[in-house]
Write a structure and sequence with these properties.
alpha/beta, Inosine-uridine Nucleoside N-ribohydrolase, Chain A, nine-stranded mixed beta sheet, 13 helices, 13 strands, binds alpha-D-ribofuranose, binds calcium ion
Length: 326
């Protein structure tokens, strides 16, 4: 069996592609999906995760847990322009020939567990075996650390998609969205002493799929997943065309899953990283100490991915998504 993982996510178009990659990869065994307030409010993120599970129908079915609704009361920035009002590219727009919705609302499980309780439960069941892949704001992990840091210590590794070091931010000139949405949580996580790998925009913006590649991929994939990939990505591609002049989609979250599968897909360095938590133009920015000095006063707290084998990852991603379910 593969590496036991929990995927914490705010689906989100690239989150959905990342989840497809995770379930199509024998190296990972997804024990749980936990949702967080980010691209959409946490209740919508949970419905989106449930829809994906209905389409994928993995066996065994992972636990589905929801992050704190309290966080949802924060003044969240909505990334509707990238992910659509529903977080999955406006799936409500698509109809079958008879006019019925192509993607009816998913049926939520009778019991939706609390994300931090699922963290604690799985860490107790599988001490030192659990990996955590963070694809949204770090709110849930910070909550768990606040509740009882001792019960989080058993994590084998944490892979985090977030931050921007040597490249501009994507939600402000300096800040990346996942960190910007909850910098206080990021600060707590970055100082937790957990074994963490950060996958920032520096590498995720170097893995993008052109519109034509996505259409070709969707045609090869088995249904209904091929049609799902085509339907969820249209709006993100249009946004990137308008904002960056390229008809493509960045595979931010899929690369974080790729790093959990095979860390050699990136070249990383142990760095000391801090988060700006005070309000102002630098709010949510991360600062990594990349100076080549030996007597840095602050020891490294994160392993940071700084280079990526882009073509290798893109080929890997497309091959895995085309894999038939067994
Ligand atoms: O900045 C990219 C990150 O923000 C990705 O996780 C994307 O899904 C959004 O949450
Ligand atoms: Ca995300």
């Amino acid at each position: 069996m593969g590496k036991r993982v929990i995927i914490d996510t705010d689906p989100g178009v690239d989150d959905a592609l990342a989840l497809l990659l995770a379930f199509k990869s024998y190296e990972l065994h997804v024990e749980a999906i936990t949702t967080v307030n980010g691209n959409v409010a946490v209740d919508q993120a949970t419905r989106n995760a449930a829809l994906l599970l209905e389409l994928l129908d993995p066996s065994p079915r992972p636990i589905l847990a929801m992050g704190s609704v309290r966080a949802a009361r924060k003044r969240p920035i909505r990334t509707q322009s990238v992910h659509g009002p529903d977080g999955l590219g406006g799936l409500y727009r698509f109809k079958n020939r008879d006019g019925s919705p192509r993607y009816p609302d998913a049926t939520l499980p009778v019991q939706i567990f609390d994300a931090t309780e699922v963290f604690f439960d799985l860490l107790k069941r599988y001490p030192d075996e659990m990996s955590l892949i963070m694809l949204g704001p770090l709110t849930n992990l910070a909550e768990a650390l606040k509740k009882d840091p001792r019960r989080v210590k058993g994590l084998r590794e944490v892979v985090i998609m977030g931050g921007a070091i040597g490249v501009p931010g994507n939600i402000t000139p300096g800040a990346e969205f996942n960190i910007f949405m909850d910098p206080q949580a990021a600060h707590r996580v970055f100082h937790s002493g957990l074994p963490m790998t950060l996958v920032p925009l520096d590498v995720t913006e170097r893995v993008c799929l052109e519109s034509e590649e996505i259409k070709a991929l969707a045609r090869i994939m088995e249904e209904p997943l091929g049609g799902f990939v085509r339907d969820i990505t249209g709006r993100s591609i249009a946004y990137t065309r308008e904002a960056r002049g390229m008809s493509a989609i960045y595979l931010h979250d899929p690369l974080a899953v790729g790093v959990a599968i095979d860390p050699t897909m990136v070249k990383s360095a142990d760095l000391h990283v801090e988060v700006e938590t005070s309000r102002g133009i630098t709010y949510g920015m991360i600062i990594a100490d990349t100076r080549a000095i030996s007597n840095s006063l602050k020891p490294p707290n994160l392993d940071v991915a700084l280079e990526v084998e882009s073509e290798l990852f893109l080929t890997f991603f497309k091959e895995r998504l085309c894999q038939r379910s067994w």
